[in-house]
Amino acid sequence: MARKLIVTEFMTLDGVVENPMWSFPYWNDETAAFKAEETNMGQHMLLGRVTYEQFAQAWPKSKDEGAAYFNPARKYVVSSTLTKDIWRNATFIRGDLRKEIERLKSESGPDLVVHGSITLARWLLAERLVDDLRLLVYPVVGEKGRRFFEGEVPSAKLELRSSSATSKNVLRLVYGPARGA
Question: Are 114 and 47 in contact (CB under 8 A)?
Answer without folding.
Answer: yes
